[in-house]
Amino acid sequence: MDIATILGIISAFGLVLVAIFMGSGLNVFINIPALMIVVGGTLGVTMINYPLKEVLGVFGIFLKTVLTKNISTTELIKNIMKFAQKSRKEGILALESEVKNVDDVFLVGGVQLSIDGLEPQEINTIMETELEFIKTRHQLGAEIFTTMGTYSPAMGMIGTLIGLVQMLQSMDDPSSIGPAMAVALLTTFYGSIMANILFMPIAGKLRTRSKEETLTKEMTIQGVMSLSNGDNPRIVEQKLNAFMPPNKRETS
Predict the structure, then answer these.
(1) CA distance 149 to 194
(2) Which of 9, 60, 71, 185 is the most exposed place for a label (fewest CB within 10 A)?
């Protein structure tokens, strides 16, 4: 679970709510027409940009990103080194029993291709293609949240204009000026909150997690290629450590 994302969302919204309660009640900031304009408008224009399936699926991508822990690079190197040593002693076919105990589906798939006897170049092509599709899915998720973060303030401005028009049309009725002004100001408030505390930070998190996962996948591909080529375990270790910062490299 990504604790930083959860703590960030809770602290950001929490501090805003605390500031609201310190100045007034929460009910002052609840306005149904303003919410309809911003939330409904943002979802609507997002669905104009992307298919409904992609828009609905992006929330699943976000939950998976937050709740799923990335594969540890240290653990990945240890697994590949264990495979390299066993393969060196007993042959590549001996890894068939080892991969059953590994949870990394991408690594298991690559090693299984080696066990099945595919040429290293074919294995590399298959794994690189899968990695490209993973990166594309992640990029689409970040792009959709960025789009929502872009449009939500714009919908807030549209709501502000609606509120101002309503206010100017009813200047002769002082009792109607307040509700119209509330819509005008709260739509901008909702749009800013949604964009700057929710959508844009989530888009940034998705891009960051995508880079982290891409690194582990590239390490995996390098490791599987080394296994397929029958490289010496120490050479395998050096190739994998090249992906790591010097202060995090471990040697056996």
Answers:
(1) 7
(2) 60
